[in-house]
Amino acid sequence: xSSTIDIRELNEMIERQSGFITNLQAGMDQVIVxxxxxxxxxxxxxxxxxxxxxxxxxxxxxxxxxxxxSELVDADFSRIQFTPDLLPADVVGTMVYSQKxxxxxxxxxxxxxNFVLADEINRxxxxxxxxxxxxxxERQVTIGKETFRLPQPFLVLATQNPxxxxxxxxxxxxxxxxxxxxxVISYPELSEEKRIIRQNxxxxxxxxxxxxxxxxxxxxxKVVRQVYIDEKIExxxxxxxxxxxxxEKYGLNELKEMISFGASPRASINLALAARAYAFxxxxxxxxxxxxxxxxxxxxxxxxxxxxxAEASNMTSDEIVSLILNSVxxx
Length: 331
Hints:
- With 331 residues, this protein is an alpha/beta fold.
- Helices cover 47% and strands 15% of the residues.
- The strands form four sheets. It has a five-stranded parallel beta sheet with strand order 2-5-8-1-9. Strands 3-4 form a two-stranded antiparallel sheet. A two-stranded antiparallel ribbon has the order 6-7.
- A hairpin with a 2-residue loop joins strand 6 (140-143) and strand 7 (146-149).
- The chain starts with a helix and ends with a helix.
């Protein structure tokens, strides 16, 4: 892979194969005003085969974004509203007795879709959360004695509201770790909000036409896997993750007391995968340090445990990631 011709060929191939990204982004822009980072994160999750956890206040187009993406990809979409009385069977499905045939039949739950929106995931008890997360990790569901594979592509987009703590069950660290990205969404700009009003008071619903088939996404993922990552970039990724565990080795002594636990090996894997998908979105056949930096906050913010000292001094995991990125040597 080291020869320039190989890289050039790879670049040309990626340039050809990634054309649909522009169309997808244009399709999303028709419906979603602003929120470029949200759209980009959804595409990274889709291309890198990873799930996305969205944190944002109500009304910021989280549901609309994934619904629009599923329409553009012509994929099955299901939405599960998580509530405290939800049961695992409500998510994965259950066995139902049929009097006609006098036997139990499998009634599949809403998890059997390409795009699953788990709305307000922190409202459901741990049993339901773990049922969903097993499906996310294993890409399969067991109902009764039978095991069923989930459709491809399979993307879970979970949302949580950061302001309400009443009647919520915070996701345990081990479960949060299963999400490739945690994306924090903020309010739109003033000009964007004016466009949102204009778009919504006309009463016209924008029709979304499918641009792709789910099989094409599965094929695109194979191309994304060919994006070249140099050994120096791999070292850079490992250094960033190790700096969350042993900040003192990277000249960040002040962070030692702020971090109760660092990022797991899943963080290293997901940093590499997300950087690859980001390079693909930018229509490049190789990963550069900027790609790693662009996805670092979303990959790491939910994987760093803050100590009591960090909370007392109002330090966030985002600030910790920024300090690490500024001090780890860039190749």
